[in-house]
Design a protein that fits this description.
Number of domains: 2
CATH architecture of the largest domain: 3-Layer(aba) Sandwich
Strand content: 15-25%
Strand order of the largest sheet: 8-17-16-15-14-13-12-9-10-11
Number of helices: 20
CATH superfamily of the largest domain: Ribokinase
Number of strands: 17
Distance between the termini: 23 Å
CATH class of the largest domain: Alpha Beta
Shape: elongated
Radius of gyration: 26 Å
Length: 491
């Protein structure tokens, strides 16, 4: 059943609604808790058969209930188990209270736990629903566990990680393994939560997929399932003039490399033709480096308007090494009625003049994709970036709504968001992608997809995925040039 949910991301609020829907449908909620706790105990025995003692840390809610079930199952299996609780066990309610009463082990206060060599901690303090800073007792326990280098298995999400935002609420466990239930949560993918989870296991506790799907929003993990139905438009056997013509705009003679990287990536990613648009002073240097990519001189808006009479030139990349200023703004506004990737200098040029760009994007009927990293995002969307209550996903969604563009909010946890609210979080990018020119390559891949007719959201999401796969193929010593050589075919 989990195959149907493998790309779904569920927020903590949506998971609460799913749990309620399951109970309303007649599914026994304690049976679900028992399944969750048994899955955790099975993972503990499988992963740490050499453990001298399993230490189960139980919180004051249902996550703690999962912990009591796990502790009981481990003890039944003959393991040495110790249970420590945050708060008073007698104050528990509902299923958590039932699980605690059924646990045959004595319960000690959390503050009494002293890590020992051979311990394995099962963290059942707080799950994905945590939305406040940790209490002092939990904070101190996490610090002691970290100092003792005790391996941790997290129940649902490492305590201290906010399941909605991935942010750390003061401190958190860094788990070796995390067991979550039914579907991943944003905190499993968004940084820094992602690196605190260790290996992630999603376990089916028995909630029908229909109930999960009906209450999940438009948030998904970025895989071919999100855009694969549009990949047929990129048939490599078709005629080159039907595979789109991508134009990439170059900067001056000392700033041409970034645009050439985008152009080369666009060609490698499947555009039928790619033209590098160059000012007169950069023609010679660009010509000396180009082979399959064509070259065209365009000095000003009049030259650009003349070229745009050729409707076969249907997608553009503007920004890499182009320069910040009026020329970038004028060119971008002229290109908004086609498909446009606005990157780097192209976005920064609108820092103090964004209203005209957003209005043009709303009214032009074109396909605008913007690809900001964190600094560029803060310059173009300062009020959204400054809102600490929003997750990275929510910031990207808000920026997409405001700008009427598809937003590729870059980073190790790149988020692609559409004005409709649809969003994907990328999970296949290796750390080696953090290298000069990597973003220029990504812009070129997005441009290639747009040129070949993919809708803007799917073009961007597919490009981010291919970019990540290329990074993995290229390996740790990659450069932007070798990244281009490793762009994989679309699945």
């Amino acid at each position: 059943m989990l195959d149907a949910l493998q790309n779904v991301l569920v927020t903590p609020a949506e998971m609460t609604a799913i749990d309620k829907a399951a109970a309303d449908s007649g599914i026994d909620s304690f049976t679900l808790m028992r399944s969750a706790g048994m899955a955790v105990s099975a993972a503990a025995l499988r992963l740490f058969p050499e453990a001298l003692r399993f230490v189960v840390l139980c919180g004051p809610g249902n996550n703690g209930g999962d912990g009591y079930v796990a502790a009981s199952a481990l003890a039944d299996g003959g393991a040495d188990v110790a249970v420590f609780a945050l708060g008073k066990p007698e104050a528990l309610k509902g299923d958590a209270a039932r699980a605690q009463r059924a646990c045959p082990l004595s319960v000690q206060p959390l503050i009494a736990y002293e890590p020992q060599v051979g311990d394995v901690v099962i963290d059942a303090l707080f799950g994905a629903g945590l939305a406040r800073d940790l209490p002092e007792e939990a904070y101190e326990t996490i610090e002691r566990v970290s100092e003792g280098r005790i391996p941790v298995i997290a129940v649902d999400l490492p305590s201290g990680v906010d399941g909605r935002t991935g942010e750390v609420r003061g401190t958190s466990f860094t788990a070796a393994h995390t067991v979550t239930f039914m579907a991943r949560k944003p905190g499993h993918l968004l940084m820094p939560g992602r690196v605190r989870c260790g290996a992630l296991e999603v376990f089916d506790i028995g909630i029908p997929a229909r109930l999960v799907s009906e209450r999940a929003g438009d948030l998904r993990i970025n895989t071919p399932a999100a855009w694969g139905s549009h990949a047929s438009a990129l048939d490599p056997a078709t005629h080159k003039y039907r595979r789109g013509h991508l134009g990439v705009l170059s900067g001056g003679s000392l700033s041409t490399g970034a645009a050439r990287l985008s152009a080369a990536a666009g060609l490698a990613a499947g555009a039928g033709l790619v033209t590098l648009v160059s000012p007169a002073e950069a023609l010679a240097v660009n010509a000396s480096h180009l082979t399959a990519v064509m070259l065209r001189e365009i000095r000003d808006t009049e030259d650009l308007a003349t070229w745009l009479k050729d409707k076969r030139v249907n997608a553009f990349v503007l920004g890499p090494g182009f320069g910040v200023g009026k020329k970038a703004r004028d060119f971008a506004l002229m290109l908004c009625d086609r498909a446009l990737v606005l990157d780097a200098d192209g976005m920064t040029s609108f820092e103090k003049a964004r209203a005209e760009l957003f209005e043009r994007a709303a009214n032009s009927g074109g396909r605008l994709v913007m690809t900001p990293h964190e600094g560029e995002f803060a310059r173009l969307f300062p009020e959204i970036a400054a809102d600490a209550a929003l997750s990275k996903i929510e910031k990207a969604q808000a920026a997409a709504r405001l700008s009427h563009a598809v937003i590729v909010y870059k980073g190790p946890d790149t988020v692609v968001a559409a004005p409709s609210g649809r969003a994907v979080v990328n999970a296949n990018a290796p750390p080696s992608l953090a290298t000069a020119g990597s973003g220029d390559v990504l812009a070129g891949i997005v441009g290639a997809h747009l040129a070949q007719g993919m809708p803007a959201f799917e073009a961007a999401a597919a490009a981010v995925w291919r970019h990540g796969e290329a990074g993995t193929r290229a390996g740790r010593g990659m450069t932007a040039e070798t990244l281009i050589e490793n762009i994989p075919p679309l699945p």
